[in-house]
Design goal:
Largest interface: A-B, 62 and 63 residues
Shape of chain A: elongated
Largest sheet of chain A: 6 strands, mixed
Strand order of the largest sheet of chain A: 4-3-5-6-7-8
Number of strands of chain A: 8
Strand content of chain A: 5-15%
Radius of gyration of chain A: 30 Å
Oligomer: homodimer
Helix content of chain A: 55-70%
Number of domains of chain A: 3
């Protein structure tokens, strides 16, 4: 049983049948066709040689098929993670050096280790700290940065930078050197891809294809652009016109790569690897969950960490780059009918064949074509209307989202994501540090108690019922002290104060001390402190404490009980 | 009115009378006598020349009297802040250099700026993030580190280090060089102080003094130790025996000091200055609040930030060191009858007179005596039984406390406090990320609903009432999705699911998206989603959202209403 939990392959492989194998094979062929240009393009985006993208699309897919829990997730290089890899490596080494390549391998290995350890320790909940608005803002902003970073390849100029300001400045300076043949190839590819995205599917439908087939074929349009521009580049010897090609790619399967063991490098890359791990995991799990829900399957987030972790380890040790589950590929895999993770393993075979036999062709592929495929792919990531939706619902969530977007655009991806997480947590703590407190009264003739400011309720002058709408913990412990002391200075006749606690899910040690302080101060002021509607788990904790031993008043099961007991004691 | 808020001096100075002046003067004399050795000792602890401690006890006291809201807080150098200052400066400069002194001045100025800005922006709540167990553990551990760091002065040896391991190792190596006359002076002072702490008060009572007078006189015992050992050092020319004395102290009032404007230095000290600010503020406010509560006065935490901020600014600009409200001094000030902050200003005059006329005497004071006063003072800070109390109440709070203590002891004060804050926040988020959820049923014959696992309640097979005992926000949004999906896979007959929300104080944008997802998935599964007991502020927010437009079921005011409506629709 336990083995099945850690090796999900055992859950499906034993009942694997020919029908599933056929479906998986068809999906694998389609995904392979889609993954070849993507893996080359994302290697380019990360500043790495083209073959690194291919290497990262072989072993990781096989390993994920063994350890992953999603039936249809397609693992490999993805845009946002590639951008983050490039940003992490920029301060360490020049693109094209062996140190740069070694850094990418190390990030994959470190990220793999981190994810695997998090999975074994069941720390998947850590990913929850990336709130939806932050991750959505981050991905939109990254998409914008990625798209602009590819313009240099489209124009055939040199430029650098990892945020919008640097890229823009650098691009503006170099645009005079635009290489016309490059722009023609890249622009042509871009226009074709944009056209195909909108018109290819209707065209294929008109030609008689079924909706699903038309949909899938449309998504493989990039391979057409790749083939066409490669052919043009070869026929016209475009390299002699200054068009940058992918160039010589070593042919053959990846070999074992030993990652650097330099502790200084490990500590320099630690934060980046952690961020890449978490962002990659969150992206991958949300794709996986969406697809699983459609077929009423489940994925196990902790085991997903192990699946992605081992995939990254295998990527690093085979000379690849960081990988995760990609959105568009996984959707194609799902739509093409993949039924088990075996489809991923078959895709790996497809990519392995490409590294063995297609490298002479790939050498003639213009970089501008890859840039065009990246731009079209990331355009779908950018969701700016989400800003408006979030703004209307919650100003604090909007604040965290906007900070993430702005910092990602003008500073760096890492600053963006860190600021987003810190702000989400900080704003949440701020909100809970000034909890909503309401004096409540009895809804006449019922056992219900409601806020005196919102409802027409009965009150009792000597007894105040104060409902605290928040768990009591360190961040609001002092606030509660202040609220209660304010209340009793305003109502000199008070003899009893009832804290109504149905919304108090936790009383931590700081709040316990504050409640003891409140109890003592109230006793000095001649007021008894009562509690009512204390939740079971909270009561279990409070049972043996000083607070209950010295409580001026009593603990009442319900507020109505307290009302009956206290309004009888001191009739209004 | 507004001016009075920012200049609390206006609240009391206009009605200041002779009676108050007399009380304040008496308190000031006693506090001055206590503050002279303390200010010298804490300068020594911070690795600074003796006069810096005196300078920090003049202007800051006057400024706090103008801007502070506590009537009896005694501002000046304190042990924990001095230790943190030394730890912050250690990597930057050698003790005794002008760079070291400039660093201390800059920390005071930066900390002053930070506190003042936080006060003006009403960011006092930030201090809440230091939970009680963390601050208590931090102060205990700092006390231990401070006490051991003073042993070198007691033995007259060289040693260094800012954590227990380094100090211990360094001390063990140098203990062979112990200077016997130093040990005799220091040991004698230590024994006298320990004796006076236990036996001086009873003795004074026997001699006929009133309880309060005996108490106060006991607390000024350090000045007796200072006078006696100074006299011995002078009479026996102990400096020629290798006893380290305070030495020549420039006589005269402090002069204006321009802090360094080097941006590199500012950024190096920023984190330290922030930690010193927050720790100093928390310590000071809790002392101030305790004393204020005894006389039914109030202090305003945001204005306290301004009071302490301006005090630190004035300390820095007059060549002093970081200051805050000290516990023991403030208690003495309170007990000695201080009625207004004027007592602080009078104390400042006392210290100013000391810098003018007492420096020739101070020059003969043995450092070992100061070390003895520090050891005795910080011994009262160490509260190890708090560890046991916290352990019994809450394992998570205990974890944060223990981490703070251990890291402070074996690594550094900054690591300790940062780990404590990070762990408190992390553990809180972890606890809320897996909220307590309970299926509830009706307590027969009532309108109350309780956990089916804890109470004997009525259920309805096709309707499940799920109570969520936590605010819904990013950290637990995904958990809710999983819980609900688990529930409906376990109960295939389900037609209606009611989320009972009396403990849901907040639904943020992430949770809103999750609720929308849950609603859609439930609809696909043929289950209607209902909400009940939604709090007013939460309902206000949800009103205009997609969720309520597309909700499968309805929003019920009370759970009983939902019960009536749904159990009629589908009779059990």
């Amino acid at each position: 049983m336990n083995l099945k939990r850690y090796l999900p392959v055992l859950q499906w492989a034993t009942q694997y049948n020919r029908g599933q194998a056929t479906s998986d094979l068809i999906a694998a062929v389609i995904v392979t066709v889609m993954l070849i240009p993507q893996s080359l393009a994302y290697a380019l985006l990360a500043g790495l040689p083209a073959q690194v993208g291919l290497y990262a699309s072989i072993l990781p897919l096989v390993v994920y098929a063994l350890f992953g829990t999603s039936r249809t997730l397609s693992v490999g290089p993805v845009a946002v993670v590639s951008l983050m890899t490039a940003a992490a490596l920029a301060p360490l080494a020049e693109i094209g050096t062996s140190a740069y390549l070694a850094g990418a391998v190390l990030i994959a290995v470190m990220s793999g280790l981190m994810l695997t350890v998090m999975g074994v320790m069941k720390l998947g909940f850590l990913a929850n700290f990336l709130s939806h608005p932050v991750i959505s803002g981050f991905i939109s902003a990254s998409g914008i940065v990625i798209a602009t970073s590819q313009l240099k390849h489209l124009f055939g100029v040199q430029s650098s930078g990892h945020n919008l300001l640097d890229i823009g400045r650098s691009l503006a300076e170099s645009l005079n050197d635009t290489n016309l043949p490059t722009l023609l190839v890249g622009g042509g590819a871009l226009l074709f891809l944009l056209w195909s995205r909108r018109y290819l599917k209707p065209l294929l439908r008109k030609l008689g294809l079924a909706a699903r087939a038309a949909d899938i074929l449309t998504k493989t349009a990039p391979i057409l652009a790749v083939l066409a521009t490669t052919l043009v580049a070869w026929a016209l010897r475009l390299d002699e016109q200054g068009v940058k090609l992918v160039g010589t790619v070593p042919s053959g399967l990846p070999s074992f790569t030993m990652p650097s063991l330099d502790p200084a490098l490990w500590s320099q890359l630690a934060v980046s690897a952690l961020l890449i791990s978490v962002v990659g995991f969150v992206e991958s799990v949300s794709v996986g969950q969406t697809l699983a829900a459609k077929r009423r399957q489940r994925i196990d987030p902790d085991q997903e960490l192990i699946g992605l972790g081992t995939a990254n380890l295998s990527s690093g040790f085979s000379g690849g780059m960081p990988v995760t589950g990609g959105f568009s590929r996984s959707v194609v895999n799902f739509d093409a009918g993949a039924e088990t993770p075996a489809a991923g393993a078959y895709t790996a075979v497809g990519i392995a064949l490409a590294t063995l036999f297609l490298t002479p062709v790939i050498a003639w592929l213009p970089q501008a074509t890859l840039a065009a495929t990246i731009i079209v792919a990331v355009a779908t990531l950018i969701d700016l209307p989400a800003l408006g939706r979030t703004f209307r619902y919650s100003r604090t969530d909007f604040g965290a989202m906007l900070a993430t977007i702005l910092l990602t655009l003008v500073h760096s991806v890492e600053a963006g994501i860190i600021a987003g997480v810190a702000l989400s947590i900080g704003l949440f703590l701020y909100r809970t540090s000034r909890p909503h407190c309401a004096v409540v009264g009895r809804v006449p003739g019922t056992e219900h108690f409601r806020n005196v400011l919102r409802h027409d309720v009965e009150l009792c002058p000597k007894v105040t019922f104060l409902r605290v709408d928040e768990s009591l913990y360190f961040a609001n412990a002092r606030f509660l002290e202040e609220t209660v002391m304010d209340l009793i200075t305003r109502e000199p006749e008070l003899t009893d104060l009832v804290l109504v606690c149905p919304a108090v899910n936790l009383v931590d040690a700081s709040a316990l001390e504050s409640l003891e302080t409140i109890n003592e101060r109230l006793r000095d002021a001649g007021v008894r402190l009562h509690l009512s509607e204390v939740k079971g788990p909270v009561m279990d904790r409070l049972k043996d404490t000083e607070l209950l031993c010295h409580l001026g008043g009593r603990v009442h099961l319900s507020t109505y009980e307290a009302w009956q007991a206290l309004t009888n004691l001191s009739p209004a």
